[in-house]
Write a structure and sequence with these properties.
With 428 residues, the protein is of the alpha+beta class. Helix content is 39%, strand content 21%. It binds a DNA duplex (18 and 18 nucleotides) through strand 9.
DNA sequence: TCTGGGGTCCTAGGACCC
DNA sequence: TCTGGGGTCCTAGGACCC
């Protein structure tokens, strides 16, 4: 490609959670490792060794105790604070080389770059970034680069799966498209879901190349404009933006299973307050306001029965809001209506829905604009403090989380973020 | 003693209407 | 005696994804 190519680059970490856990346990470097969900319930991440042994994401730990023992799978409770810290550090390292870095998920980021003098120049930069990340975090990343994001994702998968690429795969030229896409299964293309795959199979389309070569009208008819955009991207024409991938959420949920049964109203209420706090913070972060608040609870089933008490209720706020105080008030009203005494609750949560953007918000004649503004200003300050200095809590929140503490029997320390848990090196 | 959390989309079925 | 046909909208729940 010419030296004015706008390169689209995707960088993602390999087996991210498992890799981070291995960083602090070098003796496990070549051993099978799995990271567990909250309450150590299921497997959510696996090292390559664990995948090779047949363990799968979603496996219920208590059902595979025997295999875990026999195959010597090393377990870790999830330690999200640690993973987020690594994610942030990797982003910082990448940002030293590239200016336009956009985080996509905890282990994945987009980069765009147009100053490469040549493909070899780009390759050198990407190798350097990969190397820097490994030197400083001991986490391996895979990098794919091409003229469009969808193609970069294709190359990223080559970089990850085909050892010959050594972790960096660049689609040098659109002339090489056919070679890259001919062997690439269409179901692995970004934007082609399972449903889409079925439809394509019926039409005898199996590779990304075959899909990209269909007529626009045919694609538009069967896969709408979204499918057409994907096809264009596969042809080397930019048709999606980062914003398309990073769409604002249409609902925000926060829920948790409890480590042990919660029985009384007060404890459930405290847990719910935490969930609202978390959800409202996410809502404000994407600059949305919500209209509906759903609260749900579920309890352990009585002996011999399959289901326990399950109930959810959806309430409307009197106006669109994003402040924790108003949302909490409504959530409590909901909880009060669905709470049943005598149940042993195992899980609860809150879902915020019906969003509109903060700016688009039209105040109705009846709304107390001054009051809304006051809360909005207050919560800008709250979010700032929460993100920088510490945390502000509503009085009802259960600060030590003692009552709904989750089970974390295999938790690694917060090596990098908690001074009390920094790695101790035995100087022997 | 038993299994996450968060999200999207689709569908079946009920309420309601003409 | 006995109860059309067709449409929309909404919701709960399921399938699926990572």
């Amino acid at each position: 490609m010419s030296n004015t190519t706008q390169w689209q680059i995707i960088i993602d970490a390999n087996s991210f959670y498992a890799s981070v856990e291995k960083v602090f346990r070098p003796e496990l470097r070549t051993k099978p490792v799995a990271v567990l969900s909250n309450n150590d319930g299921i497997i959510v991440a696996l090292s390559s060794e664990a995948k090779e042994l047949g363990f799968k994401r979603g496996d219920a730990v208590h059902l595979i105790q025997k295999e875990i023992r026999e195959k010597k799978l090393h377990l870790f409770s999830s330690n999200y604070i640690l993973y987020y810290d690594f994610s942030r550090r990797i982003e910082q390292i990448v940002s030293r080389t590239f200016v336009h870095v956009q985080k996509y998920s905890i282990d994945e980021m987009f980069v765009s770059y147009k100053s490469a003098k040549s493909v070899e120049h780009l390759r050198a930069l990407l190798k350097k970034v990969k190397n820097d990340v490994f030197q400083e975090t001991k986490v391996h990343v895979s990098i794919g680069a091409a003229s469009t994001k969808t193609l970069a994702k294709v190359m990223n998968q080559y970089a990850k799966k085909d050892k010959r690429y050594k972790g960096v795969a660049i689609l040098q030229d659109n002339e090489l498209l056919k070679r890259a896409l001919d062997k690439f299964p269409v179901e692995n293309v970004w934007g082609i879901g399972r449903r889409g795959t079925e439809k394509l199979r019926l039409n005898n389309i199996h590779t990304a190349w075959q899909f990209s070569q269909k007529h626009d009208s045919w694609i538009r008819k069967h896969f709408t404009v979204t499918g057409l955009r994907t096809a264009k991207e596969l042809r080397g024409i930019n048709a999606v933006t980062i914003a398309d991938f990073l769409q604002d959420k249409k609902s925000i949920m926060c829920s948790r299973s409890f480590g042990q049964a919660v029985k009384n109203y007060k404890d459930l209420k405290a847990a719910l307050a935490d969930f609202v706090e978390e959800a409202a913070e996410k809502l404000r972060k994407q600059k949305s306001v919500c209209k509906t608040v759903s609260v749900f609870v579920s309890s352990y089933p009585p002996k011999g029965e399959k289901y326990g008490y399950r109930k959810n209720i959806q309430l409307e706020l009197p106006y669109f809001a994003s402040d924790t105080i108003h949302i909490t008030t409504i959530a409590f009203m909901g909880l009060e209506r669905i709470f049943k005494t005598g149940e042993r609750y195992k899980k609860a949560g809150v879902i915020l829905g019906e969003f509109t953007s903060e700016q688009n918000l039209q105040y109705s004649l009846w709304d107390n604009i001054e009051k809304i503004q006051k809360y909005r200003n207050l919560y800008q300050k709250v979010d700032f403090i929460n993100s920088s200095e510490g945390r502000i809590y509503l009085a009802v929140q259960n600060i030590d989380n003692a009552k709904h503490a989750i089970k974390l029997n295999h938790k690694s320390p917060q090596y990098t973020t908690n001074i009390a848990e920094v790695l101790k090196i035995d100087m022997g």
